[in-house]
Amino acid sequence: MSAASDPARILDLRAGPGAAEHLRANGIAPADVACIPAAAGGPKGLALIPTDKLLYREWLRDTGPIELIGASVGAWRMAALAQPDPVAALDRLAHTYVRDQNYAERPGPQDVAEAVTRIARAVLDGRALEVREGVALERAKVGDRYVLEKLTEKKWLLGGENSGHLICRDRHTTGDAVVAALAVLRALIEQDTTLAQATAPVHMFPQRLINVPIARGWDWKGHPAVRKAESHATKALGDAGRVLLRPSGTEPVLRVMVEARSRELAETHAQAIAETIAKAAGMRL
Does 42 lie in the same domain as 121? Predict the structure, then answer.
């Protein structure tokens, strides 16, 4: 049964004899849908995401259980439909499926595995640190002072940097790796778990740090080439990485740190920014 010959219609229905007879007699209702299959094919799957969102919002929202079957991108679409907020999950899928599969020229199995992990986390979890109820994340400027200000503002107890300078506000007000280590040990004992088990959900992105020589007092923040290079890398990485430029407090260098989903990306962007800074500062890298 087909409506393809009618230019006013955009939906082509294909059905077997029994289903076609039911459709002619009763039309189709959400209760008639017991299973939704989704085929492979990235471009096709991405093009169908708006239809998935429309079907859920306008038609399938209040139905009973439905079996979802998919292959490749179709499996991702069906996984998104199974989430508490399918529309938001489908939006995350459309974004991350493209963004997180910009591989290096010759990606290896580990690169593909990491990309798939990122897509799964985006579709299934949204923000990884919000998987557990009651866990929230706020970003502050680098430095104990700013972390403490944010903790005080939010009335939270724990914050810090991945260097290990953590503030446990119920114990002290400055970053201290020893206190942080003792807090971790206490938590492991109270939860009767191991460090490996407790950190299993954490996915660490590779980082690349380059120290670029600069003259003391040089206004790197006001240099257009430096800002442009930083902005380009930040936009290219999106939510799957970050860029940090910070002058050293002890030596005349500007620290360039790039965190990305792969070592190759981190190296590429860090090197590009560092070379731009060195050229702008009139220094050799």
Answer: yes
